[in-house]
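FORM 7B - TANDEM STRUCTURE REPORT

SECTION 1: FIRST PROTEIN
SEQUENCE AND TOKENS:
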Amino acid sequence: MQLKINVQSKVVHYDNNEQTLLDCLESSNVEVHYHCRDGFCGACRVTLVEGEINYPLGEPLAYVGDNEILPCCCVPVTDITLLIEE
């Protein structure tokens, strides 16, 4: 089943379960600021407006607030909608 990611007025398809959400967004030319790619720094933090994600390697060490996720180390479980601050 191909999941849809609604972000910045476009729809990105997540169809490779081996990649992180950040990798998927980058391959679709959606810019997300990042540094470590491992859930330590929190630089890639975005707002999850709708849907569910999972952290396959365990919860990230960086602080995440309510409705915030770290795309560098998560994968979508359902269709999701993201808000990325410019």
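SECTION 2: SECOND PROTEIN
SEQUENCE AND TOKENS:
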Amino acid sequence: MPQAITAGRWTNWAGNQSARPAEVATPASAAELGELVRRAAEAGLTVKAVGSGHSFTAIASAGDGLLIRPDALTAVRELDREAGTVTVESGLPLSRLNRLLEAAGLSLTNMGDIEVQTVAGATSTGTHGTGRESGSLAAQIRGLEIVLADGSVQHCSPTENPELFQGARLGLGALGVISAITFGVEPAFLLTAHEQPMRFDEVLGRLDDLTAVNEHFEFYWFPHTDRCSTKRNNRSQGPAAPLPRFKAWLDDEFLSNTVWEGACRVGRRFPGSVPSIAALASRAWSERTYTDTAYKVFTSPRTVRFVEMEYAVPREAAATVLRELKALVERSSWRISFPVEVRFAPADDLWLSTASGRDSVYIAVHLYRGTAEQGYFTEVEKLMTAHRGRPHWGKLHTRDAEYLSGVYPRFGDFTALRDKVDPQRLFGNDYLRRVLGA
């Protein structure tokens, strides 16, 4: 019997979401998880699972229900080299998965730019990186184990419970509580990263070429400047040539986190200094090239806390939307210290993927914690929705089911599946009621 305790206050990573669940439980197996779900249903409590709390929305908020912590669900159940798969429990952090795969000579195909999330939290919210041909973490799922509202433990894959599999790969926590995930993996590989400053107009003028010739291309634009920092990651035969330890610490720890934290604090206290800070920051990222294990190139440490909004718009609209965004910032009185992050993804077939059915560009805007919003996110959202943008499920937005049903062609299939497997909304909360409907 898993131990459940009366809960205190839960707060997410950014500190902008909190809840006081009635109970918190830490199951150590899928069977224990199923028992908890059954007991909660009998008691009239809702059930939500929470991982690292790295979402900026209230998607994982348990309200006054039962909060499931997956801290004891971290086992590696099976590593099948012949099939090219690894099965891990839902609470395993991506950081540990990466190192376990590295030790076995294996790798995920693509990743986002951080690795602090749990595997279930990352996939259920649509966490993604950038890629010409490789998609999100959820697109790399080959099978799932999930506990449904009746407490049953179900397995699903393209051939077993295929409808449940299609919805639950990126399910927002609305269909059940995931207990294990099977990922497709491949032999470990090296990536060569080439990071280079470029002018904004040059990036947009060369965008088609940069995204076509590079396996992974992304860039950051610094508001109040015309400067960008670009990054191209491509597979390499080696040898590995990682950054020297001191250089890596200086660039990725000291400058990108310690110094950047101080600069953001100054900008928050004295908004008039932000354009000067942006000009300095845009010149601090110099050109560099290095080759290392894939996950070490995909991911970077991020300790500066912020809030974020990200939208996916059709790939063909990328240059238009980015020029409109730059013009929007330039004619406003905003002082934006954080760079705008731009990434790319191929179309996929996941019902609620932000890249569902269309090649996409991701445009993310950030504000340092405690900074007044002053209309920045509001106006950016208007711009993105004018281009049929789809908000990242774990990042701030105001869209509802009426809007979302118009930009996701398979939205109705997902909500019909939800009606089937959770008609009583055991796994619901205020956020899901807004984005999926009651």
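SECTION 3: OBSERVATIONS ON SECOND PROTEIN
The first helix runs from residue 30 to 43.
Residues 131 and 345 are 5 Å apart (CA to CA).

SECTION 4: SIGNATURE
Preparer initials: ____
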